[in-house]
Amino acid sequence: MRMTSLAMASLALVLSACGGGSSSAAPAPAPAPAAPTPPTTPPPQTNQPPETGLPFLVKPVAQFDEPWAMTFLPDGRLLVTEKKGKLKLYDFKTSRAGDIAGVPEVAFGGQGGLGDVVIHPNFAKNQWVYLSYAEAGQNGTSGAAIARAKLVLDQAGGGKLEDLKVIWRQEPKVEGQGHYSHRMAFGQDGHLWVSSGERQKFNPAQDMNTNLGKILRLHDDGTAPADNPFADRGGVAAQVWSLGHRSILGLAFDAQGRLWEHEMGPKGGDELNLIERGGNYGWPIVSNGDHYDGRDIPDHPTQPQFTAPVITWNPVISPAGFVIYSGDRFPGWKGSGFIGGLSSQSLVRIEFDGVGAREAERFDMKQRIREVEQGPEGDLWLLEDGSQPGGRLLHLEPRG
């Protein structure tokens, strides 16, 4: 089923939907068919989101410089990426954030910089950590990349990356600083799933000679599995699981192993999609939003050969970060999805019904929310999106 609001978002709201980065400066082409941070984390700011009316307590814990993503280690410590190119290790026992050395150089600007961080399913044995980031190319181009490295921690509260190797790149690198996407998730089968945005270039989302505008399924070393739906085509097409995507900033698996993703629409039309093998989700041929210059884009129902979103938002929520909750601290929310809202400054709860979904609640956080994670104890954790004075790490606890 699909839920769509009839109200249109204002232009200012839509432009903020791209997460504060650069937006497409020119009208779309006609679519073809087919400063270093000290080791001690500064104290959180006092502009705590008001708790009135929220069903949870909101506790600021730490503050980071433009944080983008986070992941918990088995020992309970937290890795946090900062967009300018730092990887931080936060220790809740000491309230300190140390630096992890050896991070690759990033192309910082617009929506580009250091992005996602995940650990390997067998991290306890191999210590592998995966980083996504914007990588500079020639003549002002850039593209997303993923590097794998061994995380070696020290007694001082920091550490380093060893044996770093780039295992995947967007092809081709293009001009501009938007729509890298570069979210990662490991599936139950041990494969690495990657979102690759269409870099605000529209038509590559339908072009199987590029891996832009696609969701990719890879081995943990970055190679393409032989049972991928387009493996027989070779090249970057062999990486592709689904196509026709715009800017995917959330990937999450439910308890049944189904992959869900959300992506930002153009001028309206944010989406939540259930990802199907070989599915084509229609961008830029169809969308429930419009071009920034006001030109209409045909809605999904007009071309049913494309896989339609399960939910669309209009006005947009500007989705960022995504977790499907499996803990016990919020028992009534087990199985719910939680999406951070940038322009909507919200936390959005999604209820799933098999292959259907609906927005169940929206919590006003008064700040742009970049990332959502579930902690080891089953609490929810958020990262604010901000550099002035900084994005806070927020701990959500049940009331009572």
UniProtKB/TrEMBL annotation:
Residue ranges, compositional bias (Pro residues): 28-47
Record region (Disordered): 24-54
InterPro entries noted in UniProt: 6-blade_b-propeller_TolB-like, Glc/Sorbosone_DH, Quinoprot_gluc/sorb_DH_b-prop
Domain of life of the native organism: Bacteria
Gene3D superfamilies, per database record: TolB, C-terminal domain (2.120.10.30)
Sequence ranges assigned to domain Glucose/Sorbosone dehydrogenase in this UniProt record: 64-388
Alphabetic keyword roster: Signal
The keyword Signal appears for this protein: yes
Signal peptide: 1-25
PANTHER family: ALDOSE SUGAR DEHYDROGENASE YLII, HEDGEHOG-INTERACTING PROTEIN
Record-given protein name: PQQ-dependent sugar dehydrogenase
Biological source species: Pseudoxanthomonas composti
